[in-house]
Amino acid sequence: MIFTVAIDGPAAAGKGTISKAIAARFGLAHLDTGLLYRAVGARTLRGFGAVEAAEKLQPDDLLASNLRTAEVAQAASRVAVIADVRSALTQFQRDFARREGGAVLDGRDIGTVICPEAEVKLFVTASAEVRAQRRFAELQDSGSETTYEQVLADVKARDERDMNRAEAPLKPAADALLIDTSTLSIEDAVAAAAAQVEQRL
Ligand code: CDP
């Protein structure tokens, strides 16, 4: 079976949680494509060139422990505007999307650029304030000393960069289902996503 679920949306909208739940429920493989950009961004913080880092990326690089920090998130969105970085990461994502057994990919451009033929496309969003509150709680849990105001400013800066770049800007595919998690519980958001998948399977 070839079956792709494309889940796009801005930072901390709930893509990761929904993707993991859908993958587990339907027995699909899951790729968090943000980790590819985070791994490249992390390399640039250590002085490597972005394009070379993307071309040489290895699966093990996605397991590095520092990839979830706010600093790496900003570095990821800075390397993500570079066309050669994106193209170096494209084939791996396309192969993953069309792998036998089906796959869920979450990111910014899965339904628009990586896999426009995806059987299910979701665009998960929420207000910047709700997203910043969630990310702030996650960062606090992981021991980071930051403030809500700082996280909100970071989320807005990343949204701005992701939506306004020339290459693969963040936007919903024309045929994506919009899921706004500002007021939905995680259970309801997962249920809405699962209903779409069930309908297409
Ligand atoms: O987890 P969060 O939503 O905060 O971010 P992420 O999904 O890990 O993505 C980090 C950054 O990578 C984003 O801000 C984008 O700039 C970039 N990215 C991208 O350009 N395309 C993707 N398919 C995934 C991430």
Task: Give a brief description.
The chain is built from nine helices and five strands, in the order βαβααααβαβααβα. With 201 residues, the chain is α/β, with parallel strands linked by helices.
| Helix proportion range | 40-55%
What small molecules does this complex bind? cytidine-5'-diphosphate
Structural class: alpha/beta
The CATH class designation is: Alpha Beta
- Give the integer mean of the pLDDT values: 96
Bin the strand percentage.
5-15%
| N-end to C-end Cα span | 10 Å
Based on the coordinates given, report the CATH architecture. 3-Layer(aba) Sandwich
The fourth-level CATH homologous superfamily is: P-loop containing nucleotide triphosphate hydrolases
Please give the count of helices: 9
> How are strands sequenced across the largest beta sheet?
2-3-1-4-5
List the uncertain runs.
none
| Radius of gyration (Å) | 16 Å
- Global geometry: globular
Total domain units: 1
- Which fold name corresponds to the CATH topology? Rossmann fold
Q: What is the ordering of alpha helices and beta strands?
A: EHEHHHHEHEHHEH
Number of strands: 5
Major sheet: size, sense and barrel closure? 5 strands, parallel
